[in-house]
Amino acid sequence: MTQQSTSLLVGLLAGVSAAFLLVSAGSPSSLSFILFAAAALPILIAGLGWSNLASIVAVASAMAVIGLATTPQAALVSAVTTLAPAAWIAHLSNLARPADELGGPDGALAWYPLSDIFVSIAFCVCVGLVAVGLAMGYGTDFVSQLVDIFVSTLKDSNSAYEPTADSMAEMKQFFLYALPAIQAAMWVLILLAGWYVASAIVRQSGRSKRPKDDIPSQLRLPRMGAMALVVGVAMSFVPGGIGLIGWTIIGAFGMGFIVAGFAIAHHRTRGKPARGLLLWTAYLATVIFTLPLAFFLFLGLFDTARTLTVTGSGPNSKT
Length: 319
Known about the structure:
Helix content is 73%, strand content 3%. By secondary structure, the protein is mainly α.
């Protein structure tokens, strides 16, 4: 089998697998979220372990299967939110150039910076969610219907629950802006986790082109990410669609800096006797109270950097 035919076969299998996960996630069940989150894995594995051709074929075949099994609109939504971003992230991860062009050692390779991959994940999430929001007509009417369904479900389980008109209006206003931010933040986490798991699987199989990144010391957002967050905050004060896009940017890049803050905590506690206790306390406090997220957000903002992984030489210095 030639390399091209192998890539075609792998891409086809990956695409069918991704489509199966996404279609299955459409059926309400306790596993729906897990299936939906795992849908990027086959595309990432095909791109990281084989070639761009494999990931492109995977995206095309997944769209075809989803379009036949459900609707063409569902296939397009899957493409812009999951399939295409996964293929693009895999492509970036396999990019490398001679390290001596950047002042590194002769004969070594400098791989595409992890920080820039992180920015690309946040950017892809923003583009995908904004595109889906425009296609779905996301706005006041859409959220109003969604909240009405949510409240109706609560009433079915608790007959004593009867919100006032004012509380309903406040709830609808809150969800109008909170949903884009929450969805963007969650999707950044899902794509980053998918990239991490897919990279580990490909490395274990011996097909990885990229060496293992030192995530605690390298997972940062560059200054470009901080500028995007500032733009998102400014846009959020504008009423209408621009404000909703701003909240999407805040969710995506805000979560990026939060994750970078956790990476900094992992890096700075290396070698400390109570490292495990400190990290577990931080994660537990975040899950219970959520307020510590603000601390890790600012921690990530105060350490913006671009880092390089150089083959045979480990992480290079920040630039």
